[in-house]
Write a structure and sequence with these properties.
CATH superfamily: Glycosyl hydrolase domain, family 43
Number of helices: 4
Oligomer: single chain
Order of helices and strands: HHEEHEEEEEEEEEEEHEEEEEEEEEE
Distance between the termini: 30 Å
CATH architecture: 5 Propeller
Structural class: mainly beta
Number of domains: 1
Low-confidence stretches: 1-29
Strand content: over 45%
Largest sheet: 10 strands, mixed
Mean pLDDT: 91
């Protein structure tokens, strides 16, 4: 799951220009004034990760279930599901499984792994990132977002189906990777909001967009074994179909976002997105805030180091790991090789961010 564009230099140029504008609006000095970030701590090096059969882990956002001081972690490993448990400092203390499939997939994918998790009643839901690989070319993929559920604490997940796909329709002749991201979510009042990157065409994308579904609709879909209906946010309303409908960019400058996660901070009383964007020395982490989920920015730089920092996951200090009080762990992978070679040397690391 890595954005790779082949013949879309125009789009890359536009995103680069947007990035420069964002850097001017959000200087690095803001971090020193507003946010403290510790030095990166390595939790798992490449040798340790491979010894646990976690060959490409975590290949996206990590799902977290907290029970007192014990955590259960759900992550993608080579396009399959993994489940581990342990403490916040040792997420692989116990390996439950490393390569299970989502049961009863309603479509045929080359890749389907999650992912962000949340609990409603006796159900554990997982949002998953799925991919089609046209002509079996894994670097030229078309991704979508689906949802699955478990009734046995994540030992098995059963598919409910595809809920969000880009406005752009799959065209095997276009040499483009359609990357939607890892489906960070927010549960607010009676709705679940899922965030994604929406590819409009090979030259345009909304780097941060959102769709939602009511909790009532989701639970009814589970009972009927049907796919819940999500609608995209477009021009201040949720009327566009989640499956190919139009969307509105949520960040004013629509800056490039390679990967991201979202949480709610009770100290600031704001939603918070930690994201990865390209820099001159690789990829680094940024943070931005929103009061209402629909207007985000400006960006504040969190890290500045060589190599590829990727796949951020936020873990807070509340019982709900996606909420905290100004203190956040940011987990991520780091690789000097990066891109398609990242798993040869990728480490799992974290920093503590204090607002």
């Amino acid at each position: 799951m890595f954005l790779m564009k082949f013949n879309v230099l125009k789009a890359v140029a536009v995103m680069t220009i947007s990035g420069i504008v964002l850097m001017i609006v959000s200087p690095f000095l803001l971090k020193a004034v507003m946010i403290q970030v510790t030095q990166p701590e390595v939790l798992l090096n490449a040798e340790q990760r491979l010894a646990l059969n976690l060959h490409t882990w975590p290949d996206g956002n990590i799902g977290i279930v907290k029970n007192n001081e014990q955590f259960t972690f759900f992550g993608t490993n080579g396009g399959l599901l993994s489940k581990t448990s342990g403490t916040i400092a040792n997420p692989t203390q116990q390996i439950h499984y490393t390569s299970r499939t989502i049961q009863g997939l309603k479509e045929t994918y080359n890749y389907a792994g999650g992912g962000p998790t949340f609990e409603i009643n006796d159900y554990l839901f997982m949002l998953y990132h799925a991919e089609y690989h046209p002509n079996n070319h894994f670097q030229q993929f078309y991704s979508t977002i689906g949802i699955a559920y478990s009734t046995n604490e994540g030992e098995e997940f059963f598919d409910l189906g595809k809920i969000i796909q880009s406005t752009y329709v799959l065209n095997e002749s276009d040499e483009i990777a359609v990357e939607m991201g890892g489906a960070p979510f927010v549960i607010k009042e009676d709705y679940i909001y899922v965030f994604f990157r929406d590819i409009i065409n090979p030259f345009q994308q909304n780097n941060l967009a959102v769709a939602r579904c009511s909790i009532e609709e989701l639970m009814n879909a589970v009972l009927a074994n049907q796919t819940p209906v999500f609608n995209k946010y477009f021009q201040n309303r949720f009327l566009e179909s989640g499956l190919g409908g139009r969307s509105t960019q949520l960040e004013f400058f629509n800056g490039n976002i390679r990967w991201f996660d979202i949480g709610f901070d009770t100290k600031k009383n704001q939603y918070m997105a930690v994201l990865v964007d390209d820099t001159i020395n690789g990829q680094n982490l940024y943070v931005m805030f929103s009061y209402d989920l629909f207007s985000w920015g400006p960006r504040i730089n969190l890290t500045w180091r060589d190599g590829e920092t990727f796949y951020p996951t936020l873990i807070g200090y509340h019982d709900n790991p996606k909420e905290s009080d100004g203190r956040w762990w940011v987990y991520f992978t780091h690789s000097q090789l990066g891109a398609w070679s990242r798993w040869e040397d990728a480490t799992l690391e974290r920093v503590l961010m204090t607002l």
